Amino acid sequence: MQPSDYAGARRALMRRDPVLAAIIKRKGACGLGDVRDRFDHFAMLVRAIVFQQLSTKAATTIHSRLIAYLPDSKPTPEALATVTEAQYRTAGISRQKAAYLADLSEKVLSGALPLDSLDAMSDDEVITALTKVKGIGRWTAEMFLIFRLQRPDVLPVGDLGIVNAIQKAYRLRKKPTPDRMRKLGEAWRPYRSIATWYLWRSLETGPKK
Questions:
Q1: How far is residue 112's CA from residue 59's CA, in Å, rounded to a whole number?
Q2: Positions marked active-site
Q3: pTM confidence score
Q4: pLDDT tens digits for 41-89?
Q5: Structural domains of the chain, with CATH
């Protein structure tokens, strides 16, 4: 999506959903388009694995330590394959996550995970391809679709932040079920990723950054 596409998505969402419209007015322009070029496909998957089940602060520190071990501080399958068990341990990466990263490198190097082909795949095909890697589940694949591939119509119903944001924004007595979230999200098609981004932002208490 281009910047103009995000502007059009904002307008469409504001017309269709008054609750989301209020959030959009409060948060301003969508920042999803700013994320893609920070990481390539492989680097974003490495980061996603490292960040699993950690606070952002802790994960950022551990990720930085890992990257420092790599030539030119650039995560590539070849570079990551040279990281030793001791280096992973010193960086703060668990043995399990080290195994996940090794499996990611192996599958990319062998061609089992064709990163260069992901852009041409459908959302479901991308999820199927990525979840063949140990440690990459549906949620991680959906984050890749939203932030790296910039797919406009992904609704991660398993994301706790989205669950909480919808409950709060729509003043629901109970946490919404996946079916309830999908039903609510029908009004957001084909821009459910953009709606998701605004719902995440709605949980922030400070000004938009």
A1: 27
A2: 159
A3: 0.88
A4: 999 999 999 988 888 889 999 999 999 999 888 999 999 999 999 999 9
A5: 3-34+154-202 (1.10.1670.40), 36-147 (1.10.340.30)
